[in-house]
Write a sequence for this structure.
């Protein structure tokens, strides 16, 4: 099988050149990081689950008329997406106080915020993703006012839809992080598309009945049962793959199904990263 051209190796995903110009392959790894890369680990099967969850949500968003980068799933860990010019913003939407927000304002975790709050941070690990006001976003030429308006509107619509989706399966969407990018057409005109992923890596998800955390906070805070929490989210969404999600390794570019079916008690999947 032809080797692919790697474009970018991130903390949780890899990007490869896609089969057609203007496309990329997004590969979901099991690697997990927190606190700006200070804490590192592996959540077995996370890549497979996040690929499925993100695919499911992005497809539903498309159906709802919210444009995004997702084109199609390629295999258990990979999806084809439109190549975007990523706007270096972390767009955070908060429904309930949690995480750094509680520390910043001295609020108890779990306090509802009344209305969704959108915050912007600069996507820059070295600087610790500092906060940005709208004025700074314009002053630093990160986005134009019309683009930021579009980003904000899309983020609110995503929040409405995804909150409802999770509510229907007994999960509260506490907060989440989105990324957006510019998609250029042949005439060079750009439009804003939702990018990256929506998964338990990028969302805070609490069980409605028990307030139990079902997201990456289990890894950040050493709460245990991390794999189970990710699997439970996928299960409730009805997207959990039937096979053992911990065994899929497409870095060797075998068709995922065959690799799993033929699996002998063989060498442990060599992890590239
Ligand atoms: N459609 C897209 N086109 C181009 N780049 C994309 C697209 N979707 C996501 N990305 C980028 O791909 C990378 C995904 O990798 P990953 O999430 O592991 O990165 P990361 O380690 O979190 O680093 P970063 O701080 O850049 O997000 C991110 O840099 C993200 O901005
Ligand atoms: Mg990322």
């Amino acid at each position: 099988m032809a080797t692919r051209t790697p474009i970018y190796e991130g903390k949780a995903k890899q990007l490869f050149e896609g089969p057609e110009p203007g496309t990329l392959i997004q590969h979901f790894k099991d690697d997990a990081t927190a606190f700006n890369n200070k804490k590192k680990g592996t959540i077995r099967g996370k890549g497979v689950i996040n690929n499925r969850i993100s695919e499911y949500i992005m497809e539903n968003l498309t159906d709802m008329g919210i444009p995004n980068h997702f084109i199609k799933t390629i295999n258990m860990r990979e999806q084809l997406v439109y190549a975007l010019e990523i706007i270096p913003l972390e767009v955070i939407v908060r429904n309930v106080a949690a995480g750094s927000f509680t520390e910043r304002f001295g609020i108890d975790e779990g306090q509802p915020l009344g209305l969704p709050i959108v915050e912007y941070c600069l996507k820059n690990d070295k600087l610790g993703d500092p906060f940005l006001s709208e004025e700074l976003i314009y002053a630093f030429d990160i986005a134009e006012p019309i683009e930021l308006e579009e980003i904000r509107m899309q983020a609110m619509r995503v929040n409405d839809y995804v909150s409802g989706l999770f509510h229907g399966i007994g999960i509260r969407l506490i907060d989440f992080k989105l990324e957006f990018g510019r998609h250029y057409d042949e005439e060079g005109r750009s439009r804003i598309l939702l990018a990256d992923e929506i998964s338990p890596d990028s969302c805070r998800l609490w069980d409605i009945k028990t307030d139990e955390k079902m997201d990456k906070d289990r890894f950040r805070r050493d709460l245990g049962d991390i794999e189970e929490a990710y699997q439970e989210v996928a299960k409730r969404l009805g997207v959990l793959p039937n096979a053992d999600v911990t065994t899929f390794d497409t870095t060797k570019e075998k068709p995922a199904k065959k690799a799993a079916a033929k699996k002998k008690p063989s060498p442990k999947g060599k992890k590239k990263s």
Notes: Residues 85-219 form a domain with the D-amino Acid Aminotransferase; Chain A, domain 1 fold (CATH 3.30.470.20). The radius of gyration is 19 Å.
